[in-house]
Structures are given as structure tokens and as C-alpha cells.
Amino acid sequence: MISKGFSILALSFFLIFTLASCSKKETAEPTGGGAELSNFAEQARMMEAALKKDPNNVNIVVQLGNLYYDWGQDELNKKGDAAQPVDKWDRAVGYYQEALEMDPSNVNVRVDMANLMRYTGQQDQAIEEYRKAIKQNPQHPQARINLILALGQMKRDYKGAIAAYDDLLKNIPAQKDNADLKREVEAFKDAMKEARK
Q1: Is pLDDT at 52 greater than 80 in this prediction?
Q2: 1 inside domain
Q3: Which of 8, 130, 138, 177 is at 20 to 30 A from 83, Cα to Cα?
């Protein structure tokens, strides 16, 4: 179910990781970070078997979400526009949702899930999850930065993105030095001016 807009999503995906590193994963990443496809599949089988034995283990659920997140990213890095990582990202979102049912306070998992929701066409849900993460932790820079980018890039809500940027600077003043983000916000301001003409 990859749309024509997937190339734009892929480009946006790389831009997000340029502007704001993804939130730190709560648990250690599965071994073999640069794993080959078969290694990802083997790790998934092993972890899913472990989860069947211990279905209430939130750490395994988070690790599975992280594994599918990384698996999709690895596929995108290797194949570019030919990649079809959405199935992996959908699986990751499912695991992250399960983890949040077990532990709703895990802001990093919420932000990772929201990132993937953006790339699987669920922009409104992603924005809602970023806002929940910010409410839980107003000092979480990735949640705030990704909210700005989601509003501006995906929704074309430039006014909302600029307001979210101003709120970011009030809550995390050190972000004023984030030159890439500042350039992106300036582009949103320019787009607003053009729209008024």
C-alpha cells in the first residue's frame, strides 16, 4: 500500500533524522545493529518466541518495536525508493502501542511510534502522539521538533508549526542554536507569505 508520495515520505524521513536524532531507545537495541535482512528476521523470530513465553514483559515488546523500526530503516537505507518498509513500520507501531498500553508513561516509545505513524500515512495520529509526549515531558526536544516538522511539512500548517517552534524555544532555549530547524521554520514563514499573495 505504498503511495506515489512515498518518495516524499522517504525524503522527509531522512530530513527528520538530520534535524533531530530519533529519541533514544528505552532498551538496548537487538544485537547486530547493521544486521542483514535474514538477521533481522531471525532476531524477530527469537524475540517473538520469547514474548510468547513472557507476554507481560514490556521490555521485549519495546525491543520488538525497535527491531521492526530499525528493520524498516535498514531497508530504506539499502533500497531507497525501491524500499517498502511500511509493513515493518506498521508492525513496530503495533508493538509500540502494546508497550504504551503496559506503560503509558514511556515518552521515548511514544515519540518513536509517532515518527513511524507519520511515515505510514497517519499524520493526525502522529501529531496527537507528539502532543501527548510533550504534555508528559515538556522538555523532550525530539517530540517538540518532530511536532514542528509534522505540522509544517506534512499538514502545511505553517502557523501551527511556527507557534510550536516558539513554544519549543520557551521551553528548551538551547534549541535556538539548532540552525537546521531554524532554516526549516524560516521556510515555513516564507511559505506563509507566499500563500498570502
Answers
A1: yes
A2: no
A3: 130
